[in-house]
Amino acid sequence: MKNIAILGSTGSIGTQTLEIVRNNPDLRVVALAAGSSVEKMEAQIREFHPSKACMWSEDAAADLRVKVADLEVEVLAGMEGLLEIAVLPESQVLVTAIVGMIGIRPTIAAIEAGKDIALANKETLVCAGHIIMPLAERHGVAILPVDSEHSAIFQSLNGELIGRSGRREALYREIGIEKILLTASGGPFRGKAKEELRNMQAADALKHPNWTMGHKVTIDSSTLVNKGLEVMEAKWLFGVELDRIQVVVHPQSIVHSAVQYKDGAVIAQMGVPDMKLPIQYALFYPDRRPLEGRRLDLFELGQLTFEKPDTETFPGLALAYRAAEAGGSMPTVYNAANEKAVDMFLKGKLTYPGIAELIGEAMERHKVIADPSVADILETERETYEHVAHREQR
Ligand code: MG
After folding, report:
1. HSE (CB half, 13 Å, CA atoms) of 254?
2. Centroid of ligand 1 to alpha carbon of 149 (angstroms)
């Protein structure tokens, strides 16, 4: 029996994680946390019987307490609740599927308590990779990627680890990774010209060709900011330098990413797009469990295509490399400026190209803090939010 706790249980990754729990009787949910979806949370509690549940908003928690008064579950709220769930003695794995920097502190607490992390919260590594990775190493905790690309890289590396012992990070260096090929679908605006994007509305950007995801991630994937965050995530997870991470646009989303080795061999993980595979792989690593669903049919597919990302039309990716090169607190600025800008775009208060423009501006004016503490990161986030929010619509 493996006990898991899920932060962000009502979102896209969270609900798919629960589907895996449904299909694997040896997984047990001991705690759930969500933002404000009280009804969904109530249904999840009734089905999975966690001992604790947490709502980010105090009002939602109060609401939930009334709804589940007939059950044993203890309802918590806010950051305190997330931290309590993160370190729950009976849990072995924490699935971090919440969006945003609120994931950083619970992840740190969980690592310190010796929990393995099934990581789906990008911000944790983007903003605090320099804190998280060494901490995980010290506590002998595994950071298991849930993001489909990082799971693919992880899976492509596993064959090389056979017969070797030692810390994963050191082993990655030993193996001789020449390049990581990080694939990107290119999003709904792939191939569009700069001028065409001026008038794009939220509804246009929300049509992702291959994956069903939350709104924020879908916009991020259309701007290539999502890929930019994933480049930073990969840098920390696999200990490779930035210039060894190459983004490859692959519209079919069949090759989920690949590793090129020092002898020129390229090992990739392929399959039809389905987030349940990377989630399940993280939960049962190093075992593979059966998973029902569509299978890859190469004959039906016919061909796979690859192209260079258009960083001129989609500057979000180039900005990510710049933020990662600057390091320190700069990736936090990149992420926070994007969060705010996307929010403004979704509310019709910012043009589509305005998203990348605001990220660039926020980075321009920021003075890098070289080795930021969690407090520095959160303060940088706050300052960036404030700066971006003051920008008027152009
Ligand atoms: Mg991804």
Report:
1. 13
2. 5
Averaged over successive runs of 10 residues, the pLDDT of the chain (394 residues) comes to 97 97 98 97 98 97 98 97 98 95 96 98 96 96 96 95 81 90 94 90 80 81 96 96 97 97 96 97 96 96 96 96 98 97 93 96 97 98 94 57
What's the gap in Å between 392 CA and the centre of ligand 1? 31
CA of 304 to the centre of ligand 1 (A): 19
pTM for the whole structure: 0.95
| Separation of CA 360 and ligand 1 centre (Å) | 23
Report how far ligand 1's centroid is from the alpha carbon of 68 (Å). 35
pLDDT at 393: 47
Q: Which residues of 131-158 are buried (b: 16+ CB within 10 A; e: fewer)?
A: bbbebbeeeebbbbbbbbbbbbbbbbbe
Report CA(283)–ligand 1 centroid distance (Å). 17
Instruction: Look at residue 171 in the predicted model and tell me its pLDDT.
Output: 85
> Distance between terminal CA atoms of the chain?
55
Query: Which residues have a Cβ under 8 Å from the Cβ of 294 and sit 6 or more positions away?
Result: 272, 274
- 184 CA distance to ligand 1 middle (Å): 8
The amino acid occupying position 58 is: E
Architecture of domain 2-141: 3-Layer(aba) Sandwich (3.40)
Other C-beta atoms closer than 10 Å to the C-beta of 108 total: 20
The rounded Å distance from CA 121 to ligand 1 centre is 11
Question: Measured in angstroms, how far is the CA atom of residue 147 from the centroid of ligand 1?
Answer: 5
pLDDT digits (tens, 9 = 90+) for 171-226: 888 888 999 999 999 988 999 998 999 888 888 888 776 766 678 888 999 999 99
Alpha-carbon torsion 21, 27, 32, 35, what sign? negative
CA of 97 to the centre of ligand 1 (A): 13
Compute the distance from residue 249 Cα to the ligand 1 centre, in Å: 13
- Ligand 1 center–CA 3 separation, angstroms: 25
